[in-house]
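User: I'm putting together a teaching handout on how sequence relates to shape, and I'd like one worked example. Could you take Nucleoside-diphosphate-sugar epimerase from Conyzicola nivalis, show the sequence you're using, and then write out its predicted structure as tokens right after it?

Assistant: Happy to. First the sequence, then the structure tokens directly below it.
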Amino acid sequence: MTSTQSNQQTAARTALVVGATGIGGSALTDRLVDDGWTVLALARRAGAERDGVRWVTADLRSPDDLRAALGTLHPTHVFFTAWARQATERENIAVNGAMVRDLLAALDHAPLEHVALVTGLKHYLGPFETYGQGPIPETPFREDEPRLEAPNFYYAQEDELFAAAERQGFTWSVHRSHTVIGHAVGNLMNMGLTLAVYASICRELDLPFAFPGSETQWNGLTDMTDATVLAEQLVWAATTDEGRDQAFNVVNGDVFRWRSMWLRLADYFGVEPVGPSVAPNTLEAQMTGMDDTWARIAREHGLAETDLSRLASWWHTDADLGRQIEVVADMSKARLAGFTTHHRTSDSFTALFDRYRAEKLIPAA
């Protein structure tokens, strides 16, 4: 294929990014715009205006709203990066499965070529209600592991995707990420920004930067997913024969121990690192009552966001770092299929923190 043909093919592609203001959706939108795609960015509230992006606002839980919002749109590719947390897994299944089903049904008129779905390693570990309990696969997790017997909303989303693909004639891909770190504000699962805010508070108040998790996580191997790596894999799978009708793990490619990473994070922020206590010293406990403190810090440093709840998701970081099991994903399947992107996680954190500082989300050094 010539470069002219490649440019013409890209220009003919229109992507609908579902959850475009989230961590994964934001990075994916950036990547698609840079690559010359036309982007329809779907979210509950429109984001900043930019060239190459048309914002579409809709409630994913309303089939009528989706029909009204999408009825005149004709995307060739859909990237589904959203989910809505519910009180029970039964509700998670009902709500999140329906969002995939209803959105794709609302696009039954569109010339869909490929639909990509972002899930995660709870595919192997089970949902929040039974997380890491009972039989789980050995690490590193591989994509050919059978589903767990426990109900899981990821399975419901996959099943809705598979059914729509058969009915509407598009190809699909599923992308199982580990903890995703990237740039987003107001996200419910943002470890990168959560740790940056925590370290900033520790520095301002001269508090130790205490690891909030378990000794298992402190000492064991783990991995993470840079949002830019996720974005690259999504686009790769949607545009290559090797990526179609497949499920892939997606992590940075390196492994690390928190006992080393914690020292690097502490050094970046100039705080005193402290390891885990016998009982996890959770962030929710450490940061209780810090809302007014953060508002003061934000005012003094001229920061862009004074509302701590829009920056830090203590519960999610506590859940990840408090695990009593090793969590590592195997990338062999994607590598052998041709996806070779690799990031060093310490560099991912540093680049992210630099961006947070530049955008005045956290205080400068």
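A couple of points you could highlight for students: DSSP finds 15 helices and 13 strands in the chain. The two ends are 48 Å apart (CA to CA).
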